[in-house]
Design brief:
The chain is an alpha/beta fold. The protein is built from six helices and seven strands; from the N terminus they run βαβαβαβαβαββα. The chain has helices spanning 11-18, 34-41, 57-70, 87-90, 113-120, 155-175, and strands at residues 2-6, 23-28, 46-48, 75-78, 97-101, 124-131, 141-148. Strands 3-2-1-4-5-6-7 form a seven-stranded mixed beta sheet. Helix 1 packs across helix 6. 36% of the residues are buried. Bound molecules: 5-O-phosphono-beta-D-ribofuranosylamine (GRF). 5-O-phosphono-beta-D-ribofuranosylamine is lined by residues 8-12, 35, 79-80, 100-102, 163.
Length: 177
Amino acid sequence: MIGVLVSGTGTNLQALIDARLPIAAVASNRSDAAALERADAAGIPNRTFALESYADREARDRELAEWFQLRGVDLVVLAGYMHLLTPAFLDRFPDRIVNVHPSLLPEFPGARAIDDALAAGVETTGVTVHYVDEGLDTGAVIRQEPVSVEPRETLVERIHAAEHRILPEVVTELCAH
Ligand code: GRF
């Protein structure tokens, strides 16, 4: 069963829901994440684990991991989750946590990947699905898809379309293992 971590609008979560993947739980660090409404609409248990409610990041991550494990989660997908995870969470799901990122990693890690690619003047950027470790977008790459920067007006839309296509594909394959 899959656990999905979100912080934002949740279009990647929606792509996983639409692919009929077995999502057991959705968790967010923000109670105002629109992604939680998508989970509600799909009848998926969801909960917010706000950092402010815990002594520290490890305590938050421990409770989050326990909540997932109680629901049978054995594969974790970060779909626009904007916090780094500590070993308190990572060690519970060895080699079973993946993230989707809007660049061809290791180029342009971090929260502003599309803007950074534009500022660097590259002709091609893209999308990466990778394993998650303690670093910022540093884990081993599973799949990448290039996206040309031009036409620039539709770059964001084309990157998201690529994410919504390859993330469910990779997750489907990982579910089979
Ligand atoms: C996506 O572009 C993802 O690659 C990045 O954050 C964005 C999340 O969008 N990590 P959404 O919440 O899935 O709509």
